[in-house]
Specification:
Number of helices: 10
Order of helices and strands: HHEHEHHEHEEEHHHH
Oligomer: single chain
Number of strands: 6
Structural class: alpha+beta
Low-confidence stretches: 4-15
Distance between the termini: 56 Å
Length: 264
């Protein structure tokens, strides 16, 4: 009954704090390739973005937001999922669908049932016109995961540089513990890197962001994280946007690797 459910939600073993929520999400998302998962204060984010981009706070002051991102570690779990779910080849952007599924699976974890669905989720592909846009770079900035450099409008991670992507934000109806929020990341780009990135970004804009060579060259300007550059398969997928062709080759590669392992 509703009263029984209410009692359960109020009992000590249902009580959830933000540290436990973050731990549950990290435990489930990291194996799926989402190795960047950090908390932020929704107030911090809302105070610094355009009003149209603000996140709902569930009427809770200092509500907990979690930004979910990935590095090149995402590629192999994603590829394994495609091998087992070849129907993804038929959708417009298989990685978007994979990201959506993994995030919702994590949020539907039974340990998070006390929230009763009171979680707001935003994905990076949701446009301003949709009314659901979230400025992912700002969320990452206020989570202390990366530095959002307003001079060039790029996010730089202290380890991975620009070879990372922030794919989703979830807002919970609980206050965030300030101790969970990482210290701010300082600016990591040199003036020369900023100038080069600005010039290349302007060129990419003139090209309507359709030239993969320019887009890759932008990322290659950042000295931080060069060793974490995406694999050639990932680069072809993300920047040449030959989704189906790349994934067909991935499936063939994975099946070949499986056969070789069985022979060994």
């Amino acid at each position: 009954t509703q009263s029984t459910w209410g009692i359960l939600r109020r009992s000590w073993w249902w009580k959830m704090d933000s540290a436990r929520v973050l731990g549950i999400l990290q435990q489930h998302l990291t194996p799926a390739g989402f190795d960047l998962c950090a908390a932020f204060d929704v107030n911090d984010y809302n105070d610094h973005v355009h009003q149209a981009h603000r996140l709902p706070n569930h009427n809770i002051d200092h509500a907990m937001g979690v930004v979910i991102g990935s590095t090149r570690s995402l590629w192999e779990p994603f590829c394994d999922f495609v091998v087992n779910n070849p129907g993804l080849l038929e959708v417009k952007d298989p990685l978007d669908r994979y990201s959506e599924k993994m995030v919702h699976m994590a949020l539907n974890n039974p340990l998070l049932l006390p929230f009763g669905g009171n979680v707001t989720v935003r994905f990076d592909w949701e446009s301003m016109a949709s009314g659901r846009f979230c400025h992912m770079q700002s969320a990452a900035h206020f989570a202390g995961v990366a530095h959002y450099d307003r001079d060039v409008c790029w996010c730089v991670h202290p380890t991975y540089g620009v070879w990372c992507s922030f794919r989703a934000v979830a807002v919970f109806n609980i206050p965030v513990q300030r101790a969970l929020i990482l210290p701010p990341v300082p600016s990591l780009l040199t003036q020369i890197e900023k100038r080069n990135i600005t010039d290349l970004t302007n060129r990419a804009s003139r090209e309507d962001w359709m030239n993969p060579t320019t887009m890759i060259e932008i990322r290659d300007q950042c000295g931080v994280g060069k060793e974490y550059r995406y694999t050639e398969e990932q680069i072809e997928y993300h920047y040449h946007r030959q989704y189906q062709d790349v994934l067909r080759r991935v499936i063939a590669r994975k099946r070949s690797e499986q056969k070789a392992a069985e022979i060994d």
